[in-house]
């Protein structure tokens, strides 16, 4: 039903000057789902996420989140509504410690809920034991996979209704990608709603319930992961690279 829909995107357009990167995207995410957005380099995946998160003001369309029309909201207002985005390249604060990076993730809650956030650190450490080991180290000294874990952990500390992740796999070794994908699947199994943008389509389809295939700034195909994994068109066009 409509009430199950956490995020609804209608007719989304994103432009950079004269260049249109997203041309009329419709999509939705239901509460509790893990939905993937796949497609080749430059297809417009990142721009869709920027439009949803408010990092770019869409030139047209609607982004309804939790029943609230948010297209004109600034990114920080959307964070308060429960929309967290982990950008491509992770953007952790390299000179700050792991601890400080995590505190920054919870900053909108820090003054009022500080004791509870400290207990949430323990939950984060259960999910990411490496972050506990490295709690007082500079974030910049972590490996790429650990930095991605930190970025995800920081996103989770804003208690997002929707966690959006752009290119989880970027620059990471295959073994680490598998590990992080498993983590996302576990998080989703515990109830976290996730929108994952990913170039490694087969990896994304392995953990998502549904997916959208983006090509030239629009949705070319959509369906369950099983449907898309079995589609010859998807295999040929998009899943050539593993
Ligand atoms: P990638 O995986 O490389 O990030 P993508 O599918 O996420 O690809 P986008 O980054 O959304 O694609 O890019 C879509 C189109 O918009 C591309 O043609 C890109 O060159 C263009 N584009 C992206 N960001 C900008 C920008 N800041 N200014 C101008 N053009 C941009």
From TrEMBL:
Transmembrane segments: none annotated. SUPFAM superfamilies: P-loop containing nucleoside triphosphate hydrolases (SSF52540). Pfam families: ABC_tran (PF00005). InterPro entries: AAA+_ATPase (IPR003593), ABC_transporter-like_ATP-bd (IPR003439), ABC_transporter-like_CS (IPR017871), BCAA_Transport_ATP-bd_LivF (IPR052156), P-loop_NTPase (IPR027417). It comes from the Bacteria. One of its GO terms (biological process) is L-amino acid transport. Keywords: Amino-acid transport, ATP-binding, Nucleotide-binding, Transport. One of its GO terms (molecular function) is branched-chain amino acid transmembrane transporter activity. Belongs to the ABC transporter superfamily. This is Branched-chain amino acid ABC transporter ATP-binding protein. It comes from Pseudorhodoplanes sinuspersici.
